[in-house]
Amino acid sequence: MPLELIFLAVTLSIVTSQPPISSSYLFDTKGSPWAFQSGSKLGNQPSHLQARASDVDSTPGSREGSAGWSNSAGHFYLFGGKGYDAESTETPRYLNDLWVHNATTQKWVMLKENGVSQDKNSSVKRMQPKPRKGAMICGIEGVLLLLFGGQSADGYLLSDTWIYTIPTDSWLPLYIHHKISKDQAIHPSARTAAFSWCLRDRMVIHGGVVSPSGLGNDVWEFSFQNLAWKELVASSPPLSHCCGSSWSDYHENLFIFGGSRDAATAVKEYGDYSPSHLHHETWMLSLSNSSWSQLKTDFSPPARQFCSHWRDTKGNLWLTHGLSSGKNKILNDTWKFVPATHTWFEMSINSSNAPSARFHSVAWFAKDTAHIFGGFGYNGRGQMSLLNDLWSYRLPSLLAFSKGESFIEHFTPGLVFLITMASTASVVCVFGLVFCMKKTFEYPFRASSTAYNVRYTPLKEETSFEFS
Ligand SMILES: *[C@@H]1O[C@H](CO)[C@@H](O)[C@H](O)[C@H]1NC(C)=O
Ligand SMILES: *[C@@H]1O[C@H](CO)[C@@H](O)[C@H](O)[C@H]1NC(C)=O
Ligand SMILES: *[C@@H]1O[C@H](CO)[C@@H](O)[C@H](O)[C@H]1NC(C)=O
Ligand SMILES: *[C@@H]1O[C@H](CO)[C@@H](O)[C@H](O)[C@H]1NC(C)=O
Ligand SMILES: *[C@@H]1O[C@H](CO)[C@@H](O)[C@H](O)[C@H]1NC(C)=O
């Protein structure tokens, strides 16, 4: 008998003979998908600093409201926030240190110390963005980071744009890069806690707190092609808001969830964290036609602000934690949004081993695993503290539960077998195709590594500036 027929016969017999697999077989609810990685469960911890080559782990101090950006290489860059640096202080302060977490080694490395300069010997003070929280950050792997806005220690909202060049390990304000004066630079108005998206060739921001009592709903984009800001006029925008979550899909659709419509309570210092006018709307901005639309969903996560979010490799959008109003306002739940069907699912989590309720953390997805770091919430003893614990989240296999129902029943062993065979076959096909194309065209994909056309001149090592 030909091989294909044998395969078909085996497949059919499996598909038709087996009863459906029980849900516990496919979705293991016994263990927690969360795993503690590093940091302290005590809260209010200073940074631990070690020399770059040292074996001993460095850890950023406890903090909230940091800016974070991750890339496909598994590097997560963490900037500032409000919390603790290496010097132990009674009260937390605003920070401007820069860290990178490596998903391969699961270790933190400090790139820029909090304060003025990494180079303590130097008599010249190097430029570094003011300490801040609630800033927006984005980057290009191996080339640069872009930092915009935030709120500084004196309560001012910031509108400065900074470029950190990764190869030279140095910060430079954008207007100096363009050799123009501060006043000539075009940029979004000062703001903090805006929605932001980091796309392949640009960063897009939306709304945020733009004055002590004002919020925005404008959209701006920063192009990495020419390193410049441009306002983007989009039709039917949501009401002005801040402090929610944002994701992009692979098709230039930008999604947002939740946030606050009250600037005054949104940026109150913690200790008085009672937000109001929270919402639980899900919106999409299509860059292809520059128009907003509110997505109708059957149910959605409770209204909240300062939640954490990431996108997985399947394009699902994840939401965890955050700050709501009322009793038990600091949240610990985990949700998943499927953009294709506009459906929210609440994930069932075993609470015996999961990050405590918290908000203003940073989360990212790298090397098939999600991570969440820090924020303000409950420490191991149940006291409110700033945190510096790092957790990873293992994605559940196949489908997960929505509230009160399960799709798992639809998966019979035969179907799973078929899916496995189909994926194996496609992998074989792709490999074959790549192999043939390589033979024929001499690495036709090589050109894709120069997709970025960034007009950026590396700074000279000795370049230095006086603080103004
Ligand atoms: C939660 O996890 C713990 C240990 O990881 C386990 O002992 C317990 O049975 C789990 N609970 C449920 C409801 O699965
Ligand atoms: C992350 O770790 C890998 C493996 O040790 C290393 O090759 C890579 O350079 C590291 N990245 C950074 C940014 O240090
Ligand atoms: C800083 O100064 C000390 C003592 O003068 C010297 O040993 C060290 O190499 C200097 N470090 C740098 C980075 O210049
Ligand atoms: C814009 O495009 C999106 C999908 O890309 C679509 O859902 C939406 O209806 C479009 N809006 C308008 C006003 O054409
Ligand atoms: C979240 O907190 C509630 C109590 O507020 C608790 O009952 C629940 O088990 C927690 N869930 C997780 C995943 O930690």
From TrEMBL:
Residues 37-67 are annotated as: Disordered. Pfam families: Kelch_KLHDC2_KLHL20_DRC7. Residues 1-17 form the signal peptide. The keyword Cell cycle does not apply. InterPro entries: Gal_Oxase/kelch_b-propeller, Kelch-typ_b-propeller. Residues 37-48 have a biased composition (Polar residues). Keywords: Kelch repeat, Membrane, Repeat, Signal, Transmembrane, Transmembrane helix. The chain crosses the membrane at residues 415-436. This is Uncharacterized protein. It comes from Capitella teleta (Polychaete worm).
